[in-house]
C-alpha cells in the first residue's frame, strides 16, 4: 500500500471540517490536517487513535473512518 495516497486523502478529508482532529500514534499527537505530520507518523506504527472534537465532529469521524478503512489503516475513533 502506498501511504502517500492515504496521507494526502486523510489530510484533504480532515481539512473539510472545522473540528479539531488529532491522530495519536503511541505517544505522539499529530494534527491530521498537517501532511508533514502524517508523513512522519504513518510509518511503522500500526494502531492509531483519532480524537475529534468540534461542531462537525460526527461528520468528521464518519468521513475519516471511511478513509482509514479504505487504506487498511487500523484506527480507533475516540469520541467526546
UniProtKB/TrEMBL annotation:
Signal peptide (residue range): none
InterPro entries in alphabetical order: HPr-like (IPR000032), HPr-like_sf (IPR035895)
Transmembrane segments: none
Positions of the HPr domain: 9-69
Pfam families hit by this protein: PTS-HPr
Name of this protein: HPr domain-containing protein
Species in which this protein is naturally found: Paenibacillus pasadenensis
Amino acid at each position: 500500500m502506498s501511504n502517500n495516497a492515504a496521507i494526502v486523502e486523510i489530510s484533504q478529508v480532515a481539512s473539510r471540517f472545522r473540528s479539531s482532529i488529532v491522530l495519536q500514534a503511541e505517544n505522539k499527537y499529530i494534527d491530521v490536517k498537517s501532511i508533514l505530520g502524517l508523513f512522519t507518523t504513518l510509518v511503522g506504527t500500526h494502531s492509531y487513535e483519532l480524537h475529534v472534537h468540534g461542531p462537525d465532529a460526527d461528520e468528521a469521524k464518519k468521513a475519516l473512518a471511511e478513509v482509514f478503512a479504505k487504506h487498511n489503516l487500523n484506527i480507533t475513533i475516540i469520541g467526546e
